[in-house]
Specification:
Elements: E1 2-6, H1 13-21, H2 29-34, E2 41-47, E3 50-56, H3 64-71, E4 76-82, H4 89-100, E5 106-111, H5 118-132, E6 142-144, H6 153-165, E7 177-179, E8 182-186, E9 190-196, E10 202-203, E11 207-211, E12 215-224, E13 227-229, E14 231-232, E15 237-243, E16 255-257, E17 265-274, E18 281-282, E19 285-291, E20 294-302, E21 307-308, E22 313-324, E23 331-336, E24 342-350, H7 363-372, H8 375-385, E25 390-391, H9 392-399, H10 403-415, E26 420-424, E27 427-430, H11 432-452, E28 459-460, H12 461-467, H13 474-486, E29 490-491, E30 496-499, H14 508-522, H15 531-538
Parallel strand pairs: 1-3, 1-4, 4-5, 5-6
Antiparallel strand pairs: 2-3, 7-16, 8-9, 9-15, 10-14, 11-12, 11-16, 12-13, 12-15, 17-22, 17-24, 18-21, 19-20, 19-23, 20-22, 23-24, 25-27, 26-27, 28-30, 29-30
Helix pairs in contact: 8-10, 11-13
């Protein structure tokens, strides 16, 4: 269970983590010298059978980008408010970030309670309750604590345990994905990366894929929750020892994932929410984009509108400056380009989006289905937009579904007559409307070819497929051709495709020319002339020969 701290600088986040765990999370010399957290810190606590991994984030506004890398993947928020200062700017920004990232549960710690009297503590409690009203922390316990005297620590541990019990258990059977927040080398072991494992599992000997580069790497070993384990499971801090790569080639923002399943992207369709405190956002606005542990620049293009007012929500297409791995349901944060401050966030809907087009009038309805639809509704909508066939690998890359989920949804849609499975290995789906249109197009092309080339026995199969465009999947083409053949509309024997029952019929003049050509070659003996010589001698046009 991952607990993430949040709160203003010098409100005692790191001291509280140390008091709870016995480990001070600050690891950099500069952090220890200056007494402030600059980068992410980590500590662990075993309490009543639950192993908590604490991610301590920096509170200073200059290091919010580091805070964002740590906030990704947390299960329980530990919001820290100092009793001698109450709510401050970074309290608000950190809380906005956690809400936008979809955090659902947490505990509020009123730190430094030993420095104030009872009346002041009660006033800060009331201010916190008012600020959190209507949010996911509205019913959360507010626990006065002191890292110095340890007052309130046991109550805080009980509150964290209760929050952990209500948290959703992550599924280890799903595809593996580990956003990297640190990379370093250990003498005798080699390259190590760490992060919060958000889905799936990994163990020694497994092959993983590194995004965005696509390198295939072997796992030497894993540590989870601060100790060596056979397999890492989601919801824990995880360290992975990798073979085949130098630690200098690894950095924060990269992702380890199940190999061969996902695709990097530079365009995503999203549901975007702007904070009420933000300025109006216009079409084409550039902003800092944070997803997982990655950070890049994004250009924002709205679907169906030209701007987004403060507090508004809209579907948008984001053009990313760098290639990233993101998946549907992933949360992201956008920060104003300059001056840099958090202005909104949202949810990834289509991780492999195309450039917005004015004539794509169905895009908003499609995104609404991706946002709220059932598995079958989403798969049907994807098939309707995959005009030449929707393949199994495309479905995984766009949804992160497991194989059995894809096949179950496809079977239900097929039974309902909404899609046709033109191939089972690999699975390829197409709507009946699209399949009928492809059949008609194939038949028209063959008939046109034979009309323009009456003396040829048929159209080459590969030429026919190429004429339909590169986006036609071979499985879809083959199924459509087989369907037309079974309906006796086309003959497709060998490499040639022709109208069913069609034969080459020569006009009288053509028949005489054929006989003359055959006779000329037959009478030539061993001195075989060229075709050009025969045609010239017989005064026959080459294009009709």
């Amino acid at each position: 269970m991952i607990v993430g701290t949040a709160g203003h600088i010098d409100h005692g986040k790191s001291a509280l983590v140390e008091a709870l765990t016995g480990t001070h999370p600050d690891r950099l010399e500069e952090e220890k010298r200056r007494g402030i957290t600059i980068d992410l810190g980590f500590a662990f606590l075993e309490e009543d059978g639950v192993r908590f991994g604490f991610v301590d984030v920096p509170g200073h506004e200059r290091f919010v980008s580091n805070m964002l890398a740590g906030a990704a993947g947390i299960d329980v928020l530990l919001l820290v408010i100092a009793a001698d200062e109450s709510i401050k700017p970074q309290t608000r920004e950190h809380f906005d970030i956690c809400r936008l990232l979809g955090v659902q549960r947490g505990v509020v710690a009123l730190t430094k309670s030993d420095l104030v009297d009872g009346d002041t503590l009660e006033l800060v409690r009331l201010e916190a309750e008012e600020y959190l009203r209507g949010s996911f922390l509205e019913e959360a316990p507010l626990v006065p604590v002191s890292a110095k005297t340890h007052a309130g620590l046991e109550e805080l541990k009980r509150a964290l345990h209760a929050a952990a019990e209500s948290a959703t258990v992550k599924d280890a059977s799903r595809h593996f994905r580990l956003p990297i927040d640190r990379a370093f080398a250990i003498k005798g072991f080699g390259s190590v990366v760490t992060g919060t494992l958000i889905s799936g599992s990994a163990g020694a000997g497994d092959e993983v894929e590194l995004f965005p580069g696509g390198e295939r790497l072997r796992v030497r070993g894993v540590h989870s929750g601060g100790k060596a384990v056979e397999r890492a499971t989601p919801g824990q801090r995880t360290a992975v020892n990798l073979a085949g790569i130098e630690h200098t080639a690894l950095k924060r923002g990269m992702v380890l994932a199940t190999p061969g399943k996902f695709r990097k992207t530079r365009r995503v369709d999203v549901r975007l929410e702007l904070l009420a405190s933000a300025r109006k956002m216009k079409q084409g606005t550039r902003a800092h984009f944070h997803a997982g542990t990655a950070e890049t620049i994004a250009e924002v293009f709205f679907h169906g509108q030209k701007e987004l007012p403060p507090g508004g929500r809209a579907f948008a297409n984001l053009k990313l400056q760098d290639e990233l791995l993101v998946l549907p349901g992933d949360r992201f944060i956008v920060r104003q380009f300059s001056p840099v401050l958090t202005i909104g966030g949202g949810t990834i809907l289509d991780p492999l989006a195309r450039r917005p087009m004015l004539r794509d009038t169905g895009r908003i309805a499609y995104l609404e289905t991706l946002e709220r639809g059932t598995g079958e509704e989403i798969l049907a909508a994807m098939a309707e937009r995959a005009i030449l066939g929707l393949g199994h690998e495309e479905i995984i890359a766009r949804t992160a579904w497991m194989d059995h989920e894809i096949r179950d949804a496809a079977r239900r849609l097929s039974d309902a007559g909404r899609v046709k499975s033109v191939s089972t290995e690999p699975l390829v789906l197409v709507t009946e409307k699209i399949f009928a249109g492809l059949r008609n197009k194939i038949q028209e092309k063959v008939e046109k070819f034979q009309k323009e080339n009456p003396l040829l026995p048929g159209m080459l199969r590969e030429d026919l497929r190429s004429s339909l465009g590169k986006r036609v999947r071979p499985e879809t083409f083959r199924a459509a051709l087989e369907d037309l053949t079974s309906q006796k509309k086309l003959d497709a024997a060998g490499e040639l495709v022709k109208k069913a029952g069609s034969e080459i019929t020569l006009q009288p003049e053509e028949a005489r020319a054929k006989d003359a050509i055959e006779a000329a070659f037959a009478s030539a003996g061993l001195q075989v002339p060229s075709v050009k010589e025969v045609l010239t001698k017989l005064a026959i046009e080459a294009k009709r020969a």
